[in-house]
Amino acid sequence: MKKRGKSAESGANWMDTYGDMVTLLLCFFVLLYSISSVDQAKWEMLVKSFNPDAEKVSQIVNDDVSEGEDDVPGSLGEDAFDELYDKLKEAVKEAGLEAQVELYQGDGFTFVTFRDSIFFDGDSSVLKQEGTAILEQFASVLSGSADVIQEIRVLGHTSQASPDYPNEAEPDRMLASARAARVVAYIQEKGMIAPEKLSSAGYGQYRPIAPFDTPENRAKNRRVELLITKTDSVEHRLDEYYQEMNK
What we know:
7 helices, CATH 3.30.1330.60
C-alpha cells in the first residue's frame, strides 16, 4: 500500500493564518483610531506605514471637523463647576435676594450663606413657604451640575440670645441641627442630587461671624450655609474655608 503523500500546497497554510492575524491587527488599530480624537499627522503616518506609495492620504481625514466636535456627547467641560456659581448668582438675582444671600467662589468649592429668616422664623425649624421657593430654584440649578459636585454640606447656625450668657446647650444644638436637616431633606426629596452627596451639621452658636453685642449682629449669626465642593477637590476643615473667604 502506498503512503499518502503530503499535498504540495499544505506548507502554505501558515500564510493564511498569518494573513488573518494581520487583518485582525489592522482592524484593531482602525478601531482604536475611530474612538480617539482625529490627528491628521498621525493618521497620515498610519496610512503610509501600510501603503508607503500613497500620495494623498489627507483626503481620508474630514477637514470639516472643528475643534471640540470630537468630544463625548454630554461630557462636562472643565469650567462646569465655575458655571454653577454663575447660575446660583443669577438665581439669587432673579429672586431679589442679593441682600440676604451671599455667594463665594473658592478653589474647588462654592459657599452660599442664607441670612437670618429666609428659611425659618425665630426658634423654629419649619421651612417657610418663601424658603421652599428659593430652595426649589437652587435644587434645580444644582441638578444641572450634579456630576461635578462632590458633596453639598448644609450647616445650621444660631445666635447667642443674650450678649452675656450662652444659650442652653441642648435646645441650641437641636435647633441648629434640625434646620440644617430640614434643608437637606427638602433638597433630597426633589430627587435631583444623589442622597449620598448630601450631609448636614448643626453648629449652634459656636461659629459666629459677628459679635453678639447688638440685635443686628446677632441676626447675622442666625444663618444656613451651603458648602458645595467639586468632585476630586481636597476637603478642608470648616475653619479653613472661613479663613479663605475672609482673606
